Structure formats: C-alpha cells, structure tokens
# Entry
Amino acid sequence: MGEFIQTTIGGLTLGAQYALMALGFSLAFGILRVINFAHGAFYVVGGYLAYWITNEVGLPYVLGVIVAVLGTAAIGYVFELFVIERRIDDHLATIVMTLGASLIGGAAMLSLFGAQAAQFEGGLTGTFRFGGVFVPHARVMIIAVAGLAIAAVYLLLYKTQVGNALRALTDDREMAVAMGMRPKVLFPMAFAIATGLAGLTGALVTPQFSLAPFVGEHVLMISFLAVILGGLGSLPGAVIASVLVGLVEAFVGTYVGGSWAPLILFTGILVLLVARPSGLLGHRTIIDA
Amino acid sequence: MPKNLAPSTTSTTSSAVRRRSRHVLLLPGITLLLVALGFFVPKLTADPFLISFVPTVLITMLASMHVWLLLRVNLLSFASPPFMAVGGYVLALVATNVTSNAIVLIVACVVVPAMLAIPLGLVLLRLRGTYFALVTFVLAQVVVLIVVIAEGPLGGSSGLSGIPPATLGATQFAAGGDLVRFSVIVALVGMALAATVSIVWRRHFAAIEENEPLAASLGLQPWRYKTYAFVSAAGVAGLAGLILINQLGNAHPDSFGPLSAVNHVAASVIGGPSFLGPAVGALILAWLVHVFASQAQYSQLLLGAALILVTLFAKRGLTGLVVDAAKFLARAVSRPGPPDTGARAEPRSAEGDTTTQVPNTLTRRESVTTGEVVLSVDALAKRFGGVAAVDGVSLELRKGDILGVIGPNGAGKTTLINMISGAMVPSGGRVTLSGKALTGSSPQTMSRHGIARSYQQTSVFSGATVRENLRRAEAFSKRWVSDEELDELLRETGLDARLDDIAGDLPYGLQKLLGLLLPLATRPAVLLLDEPAAGLEVSERGRIDQLVEWAAERGSAVLLVEHDMDLVRRICPRLLVMDTGKELAHGTPEVVLTNPDVITAYLGVADDEELADIADLVEPSVLAEPEAGTHREEEIHRG
Amino acid sequence: MRTTRTRLLLVAAALVAGPALAACGSDATSGASGSSGGDCVLKIGTLGPLTGPAADFGLSMEATAKFVASEANAEGGLEVGDKKCKVQVSSYDTGYTSQGAAAGATEFASKGIKFVIGPLGATELTGMKPVAARYDMLLAANGFGRDALEKKYPLVFHLGPGPFVWAGPIIEAAKKEFNFKNVKVIAPNDQSGDDIAIVDEQQYKKAGLDVARDTYQRGTQDFAPVVSRLLRSKPDLIDFASSPAGDVGTMIKQLRQAGYDGTFARLGGDSTGEITKVAGLNNMKDFFYYAPVNFGSDEVKKIQPAFKKATGMEATGISLGWIPGARTLLESITEAGTINDTKAVAEAMRSHDLKDDLLGQGVYTGEEEFGVNQEMSWPFNMGVIKGGQPATFTQLEANK
# Structure
C-alpha cells in the first residue's frame, strides 16, 4: 500500500514537472501557432544561465533563476521579432527555423560549457517523510512553482487586457491589427513568456536531475507527448495530459520497468489518435476535413 | 482540352514554360550523374573515403527524398528513421534467413515499409500538417523501442550482426566498387519511385502544396494523394535503410535514432523543392559532417544557422537560388533593355469599363419559386465553445435561383458557407443536395456532388499560370464547362490575355476574378460566393453581376454573401439577413431592407450606402466572437 | 505528357548506358598508403563519442592517444626501422553509434591511417570491425560486448581488461569491505548498457549473492519510478554497471532521498569524478568501483602533470588506464619495424611482455570469453569510498 501511495505521489510530482516543462511549449503554440522545436534548447540555456550565475559568478541561486528567466525571455523576444515574425503564417517554416535554433542552442552550450555534466546543486536538499512515503523538498517547490506558473498563464490569457489582445491576434490577425493591436509588440512578448517559462523550468529542474547540453531532448519529447495527448493549443489539455504521462510513467516504471513505460505511452498515444485525432481536449480544427 | 488551354507556342517568355523545359533535362541529368559517379568513381580511384562517401551521400539523399516527397503535399515528416529501420531490418532478416539475392532484397525493402505505411497513413494523414510533424517524431521513438524490446527476432539493443551482403549471381556487393555500384542502383530505384510519383501526380501535389482548401473545394481528395506520397516516401526511406545496413553489415537500433531525422529535414529544406534538392542537401550535409568530423558542434551550429537563413531568405533552397541566379544572368545577358513585364499592355481595361459602368443594364432576375429544390439547409448550427456562430438557419435554393445573404460582421455568414461547402462540420441541422443528405461531408465530397465555392480572400494556385490553374480545376472536378463557355468566361473576366501569367503576379482584382472563375467553370449545381466583390474596384464589380447571371442562366443555384448593398440589390431577388447567427429577415430586398429589425442590426442607419460602409467597420467585439473561429480555421487550412 | 515521356526515355537511356560503359575496364585497386620517402609520419586514429552524453569517455580516449604520441615525439619521434617517425593523431566523432564508427573507419582509411586507438563502446566496435578489416586496420579498442573480440578479426585488441576479468575479483574484495547479500544491477536498455550489466550479474551470482538486473530507458531525467522499482526488493547493494555518469549521479541522489541506506557499486567504465560531481560525496557515502589506476600511487601522481600539459585535460582514471595499452601498440610498431604492415605489428603485440611503468605487469586474457587471447589485462584496482570520505584503492589482478 505504501508503495502504491508512493508511486501515486511520485507520478503526480512527475506530472507537475512535466506540466511546467510543457507549459511554455503549449503557450507558444496556443498563441503564435508555432511549434517550438527549440523549447528543449531554451530549457538547457536556462539551466546553464542559472548554473553560470550560481557557480561561476558566485551569486545566490535565486538570482541565478531570475537571470535564467530574463535571459531566455530576452533571447526568445529577439528570436521572435527578427526571425519567426517574418514567416509567422507559414507553419512548416516556423518549425524548421525553431529546429535550426535548437541546433544552435545545443551546439553553443556544448562549445561554452563542454559535454560533461555540470556540477549544479540547487538550494533545497531535504526530504519530507511520513511513514513509507517521501517527497523531496525540491519537488514540493517545483510543484508549487508549476501551480503558480499555470495559474499566472491562465490569468494572463483570460483575465487581462493583454491576454484578450493576444487571443484576438491568434484568432484573426488581420482583424486584430485593424483594431489597433500590435503584433510586433505582442507576439515577441508572448514568445518571450514561453521561452522564459522554459528557462525557468531549466533553472529549477536541472539541479534536481542533471545539466548537460543534450538534456533538452527529453523535455522536448515530454512537451510533444503532453501537447499531442492534450490537444494542440489547449492549455488545460496539456496540463492534464502531463499529469497523465507522469502517472503512467510512474506506475509502469515501478511495476513493469525497462522500456515498457515509454513504449506504452507512445503506442497509447498513437491509439488515442485513431480514436480522437484532436487529442483529449483539442478542437476539431486540426482534423483534415 | 479547349483550344486556348493548349500549350501556347508563342509564350516563350513565360517562366513556367521555361522552367518546364529545364526540368525535362533535370531528371536524366541527375540520373546520368549518379550512374557516372557510381560506375566510374571505383575505376578512377580506390580511395576508401570516396568509395564510402558515395553510399553515405546516397543514404542521406534517399532519406531526404522521403522528407522531400512529403513536403510536396505540405507535410513535414520526421519519419525517415523509422521507415529506414523497417527497410534495414527487413534486409537483415531476409538476407540472413531467406536469400541475399539483391533483387529480392530491393523489392522487399520497398514493399514492406510501403505496406506498413498504408495503415499508419490512415491514422496519421487525418492530422493537420503541424500535428503530423509531431506524431512522426514520436513514431521514430516507437520503432526504436519496439526493436529494443524485441530481443529475440530483432536482436534487441545489441542489434543483428553478421548480415550477409546482397548478392547477384556470383557478385557480392560487400565492398569497394561493387558496394558503390549496388548502392547507386538502389538509390536510382528510390529516385525512380519518387520521380514517378511526383511526375504522375505533379498537378495534384502542386495544388495541395499551394492551396489545399481550394483544391479540395474543387473536388480533389487531398488524403488520397497524401497517402500516395506517404506510402511511396516510406518505400524510398526503406531503400535508404537497405543501403545503410548492407554497407554496415549489422543492424542496430542506434543507427535509426529519431534525431537523425533532423539531418534529413535539414538536407531537404536546404536543398530546396527542386528534384535535385535532396541530392544537393545530402552532399552539403555529408561534407559538413566530414569537415567537422571531430568537432560536431560546429557542423551543428552551421546547420542550424543554414536552416534559419534558408527559410528566411531562400524559400526555394539552394537549388532555387541557383535557378534564380541563372535566370537573372540569362536576363541580363539576353535583354539589356527594361524587363518584359513593363512592355505588356494592360489587357482590356478600356473594353471592360463599358460593361462595368452600367450596373443596371441587367434586369434583376425574378425569384424562382417553382422547379426542383437543389439545396436545402435545415436548422443548421455551429457552436464554437459555448458560443453559437450559426444558430438554426434554414434556407432553400432552386435551380437558377439567387439568394443574397447579408448581415454585420460576425453574423455567421462565412461559417454558413463553410458548413455547406464541407470546410466545417456543423454542430446541428441538415444539408441536403437534390434529396441527398450531405451534412458534415468533406469539401471534396460536396464538390463531387456539385457544390462549389469561392473565398473571401483571393484563393488561386498562386505559383502556377492562369492556364495551369484552369487545368488543375478541370483535372480535379467531375464536371467542366465546354470550350466555348470557357472562352466566354475568360473574355468576360479579362483573363484571356493573361493565360500564361503566374496567377500570384496578377493584380488583386484579376486574382479575385480567377478565384470566382475556377468554381464557376466546374458547372456547379450550387455556387457559394463569399463576398466576391470585397476588395474589387468599383469598375470591376460589374463583372460579378455578369458572372453570377451567367451561372444562374445555366441552372446553378447561387448563394451570395456580400456587403456591397448595391450589388446585392442589383442581382438578388431574395435576401436572407443574418445577425448573431440567427435569421433576422428573409424576403425581397425592398421588404427586408426596410425591416426595422434589420435597420437596428445595422446600427439604425437606413441609408444603403452608409449601411454598406458601416457594415464593413462595425463590430468592435468581433474578435471575441464566434466568427473569429472560422478565420482561424481557414488559416490553419492554409498553413 | 510529351515532356514526361521524353524524360523517362532519357532516364532509361542513362540507366542502360552507365553499366554498359562501366563494363569496360576493371576497378582501380587500393595502393599502400603511409610513408613514401621524405619525413616519416606515423598517423594514429582515435575515435569515440566526442560530443553527447558519453563524450567524457571519448574525450578521455582521445587524450590518451595524444599523450602517448607526445611521449614518442618528445624523444624525436617513434623509432621505426632506421627512421624516427613523428606521431600524429587524428580524431573522429562517432556520436557513439555503430554507423558513426564505420564512417570513422573509412575516413581513417582515406587518410592512410592503419593504427587506431579506439573505438570506445561495444556498439561502435560492432560497426567498425568489418570496415576496419577491409583495410587491414589494427584496432586497440575498449568495447566489451558479447563478441567484441573474435577469431575472424585478428587485428582487434583490447586496450585493457574487460568486466569479465575485473568484476569477479572486485566483488570478492568488496565482500570483505561491505556487508551485502541482495544485489540489484541497473543499466540502460541498450547494448552499451546491457553488455557489462549482464557480465556483472553473472559474477555476482558466481559469488553466491542474490542478484536481479533491471533496465531503464536511456535519456530518462527523473528516476523516481526507477528508484521505487529498485527499492521494491530491498537490496543492500545497487550496481550501476555502465550507466552514464550523469544518470548514476541522479539515481544516487534520488535513492538517498527515498531513504536507501545501502552500498553503491559501479562495476563499469570508471567515471567516479563525474558521478561525484552530480551526486555529491555525501550522498555516495558507501561506494566501490572498478578503478583502472590507483590515484594514490606515486606513478600516477608523477604522470598527471605531464598528461595535463600534453593534452590540456585533467587525467581521468580511464585515460590513465588506457596508457599502457596504447604504449604497447607504439612499442610493437617499433618492434615490427613497419608502419604499414599491421599483421606484423599485431604479431609483435602478441609477443609483447606487457610490462609497463605505470601499471606494472600485465597478462593477455580473453581466451575463455572470446576465444582469442588479445585482451591486455593490466593490474587494476578497487576504489572504495566509505562514509563519504575520498577514495582509497586496493590493487587486484586477473584471476588465473
């Protein structure tokens, strides 16, 4: 029983992390209709920025996290403004360009910090224990941040003027521009928020696991799964799907082991697509009519 | 084929014709080059690097060809590694257990991946472009995981080794010149497959790549041609796997990692959409890998930068750049004077004015009250989230009838057309065409049953000539006008003088008219026109009257959504006014336009002129409104 | 349609013409590459993952090759016959794949390279052997797969001892240091993971312990499910075999968080430094591992600065452990007096006395495991971390 509870808790914390990882990715798609293949690269850059500030400059970890968020957001802003914005209506072009950015990001980190994992420890090391069940402090912090970030993104999108403008731009750009909304300001900003979230995730999560130039691939894959499962562009869908992926991984990983967890997840997703091509909460707009 | 659509003998200036003639030489050229490479390189040199370089380039080329083929139908595929894996493991199993005969192996490595692609295609091709890309990425992971778990038959994580090389008679294609020659022959088979598919269905592929919604609304079945592309692309990737595993002598899951697809996508994007693209891309990639053999991060850096730069500044890739440069040089050499476009006379502008200055020369048709009901729409509804964009609209159209649909922006007019034409699935209600229930059918099904539509924005195959636009429409549609009628239509619109011009280069008005002409020429039973006059000069609007009249005379039932009140009053005997998704009024223009509810809907302005103007501008809240959803959908379709 | 037909005809013509033309004349043959008058240069290849998760290993191998080359060059070059040959090192990044290693082999062949230090992993070795054999290339390799060495590839050697040699003695020695009965072995679900993990598992069984092996998906970031699975059978020793160092570090952290109190082992390629970086010495607490060299010994302390100077890289355990094998290769080239005839050099290697300043007296092993005695088994060490204190070393030797 203790094991079952532990596995459930493990799955939920895993799911919360995945939700945080997938949030920026889902946001970029939801607002800009851009599939950001560089999402994993931004995660890694965020991790290295925090590492650099904390371990090489010697400032507190909290500052490292802040710099990571601001730094990745700034890169995202510039990248959107000067690159993506020019081909924003061509979805295949934006995929290819973010793919390019992802290659550049990975290679840059490799050149700057080397291939070896960095020695990077965050601030929190303790563990909560009750009976046979345990939750590390850092996980609790990640869950809290994930919850806050999801709430903040939700409020931003649905309860603010800027959010209304962003959604309007997504729905009908021409019309929104005619109404005086400025995509040249709003879209880079939205993309900056998305990449900043990736950077935040990197800064928070890499100390718990490991930080090396290639760890972004896993984050990208998780984001894909969450978004395919949840339905492209659906924020609640992505969050629910993330938790689901975490639970499946925890239970299959604990009780079956080996390669079965990813295999079950991936094939499960292919099967789901047969039944519901638009994902759990997606709109039918993505289906070929 | 109508006379005026036959290849023009005088239009040597047309870039399309020139491009076609160059293409004639392209395929044999590249074939010869490859054959020469494969057969003569081993004679000239025994340098192991060159000898191994050839198969390596060929593998990347075939894998990129997989991506390239699917890009031709607007799909981005990361599925080259999984299909390569299928081909590679088929080779491993067949060569080890059955026979190492080269011909059997080649056939098996095409057929098995292709067969697997059929059921997969049924699932994946229902997904839109961006979604498809994500899922093929996942697919690559699934195949590797299956191989790892299948330890018995597929060797699990250690792979299968000791695979005998392909043979033909006494020749073993294991090393040196024989290996190179075999690889070249396999690559040629793959290229022949890709070339056949892309030549036979070039019109369909080009139409899907340029404007899929339009192609579908003209009757093309996109999924069908996407399936052809997907299945043959799977076969091509299978052959890449064959060369790879035959060269290595062992099949290992590591050789098919999902991330290698990134290289294949890069090669085909950098190479460009020309048939030579994958070959050029593969050469560049192989060269990069070779030069930065010990510092892979630099080749990655360059590759990443190249991807961004090519996408931004050279949409047609490096091959496109070369063609453009050649064109530029040719022009600079042969024509030192001003470019020829300036010399061409504006067609028919004077003539056109005589017909358009007189909007009232046509008397409005009487409303048709008898005869067969062609289109019957019953309580049709569409909800986006909780908001009803169209809320229980009913209407009937008889043969030769014209119905105008008006209403403020966001009233749900375009959504209505989208539902009748099959671009959207209704949330409720029925669409019946000549007694046949068609509710929620696909655009191509609607088109096959005789429903045609035009789009609010210009919608043509903008990369093709006007002539090619017409040919495509003719190829996709079940019905087509007679030669004489087409001539008449072309003259009517002034497009007859611009048959060899690229549609995207035409002035806005002519593009819009071409967009009207295409559905019209399919002789539809029902013609849905979405704001045909929007964006046209007043002088051009008269042509709409004539086109609509022309269609109605020939028995089409016309549904016209329009903001131009003059136009609507001129040609519509009957009007349906919509507001917030509901029918507000229905009847003759005189009755409807004096209806107080209608006037209120238009902010209480009674004057028609102003009314039209305001209708274009009102609705500050439209963005949050349901109709916005329809725009998004169209955007995705176009994407 | 007419253009299509023309095109297809032309393609067919090209297809027929090519082979017809090619039928005349025969293929050129590969000439001997290498020294042809002038200065004598001995080119040595080294390959492995220079980027990506396993780059730590690949870079170490590259450094070893550079170091032995610098040793030879410091004496004016390697003596071959009556010449002094300058030793040059070329490296190639395999990306840790068999395909990459095969490509590396042809790349080397084109540069006239006949002697290779590498590759690193079993996967790479599998892909490289057939290609290398085509060009009579001699490999002093490290990969320890099931068929790493084979009778049909007589030019493939192992630079150092494999798990088959060291796992048993280390387990016996560790039983005296730590108290454990119930062992779990964990490694990624691919060849480089499985190969060593399976050998470890067998050796634990031989030593009379309860042992079970588990796998995880390479690329996993959060090991929470793996950790709960490992802890289900309440082991008192967890062996990470050849899991990537970063993964091991993360697993150690998470296992300690989950309350695991037992011992850790790493009977795989030595990367204790990297593991310590990620996990922290405190979390490792009780840890024993296969160590090619004793970092406490005078010989190692003496060579470290020279190594750093020659390669620009801090000497790692594995890179030091490969030095004697790499030196043996160069000495055998001198002995055979040729930089072209790899068969003669292989013969000289087989009769080499395997005596080295750094690690002492080695022996050839491999007969039992692979059927060929071409594994240079140098004395090795068990590294022990106890109570979070820095490592101590116990020297061990191959079982006879």
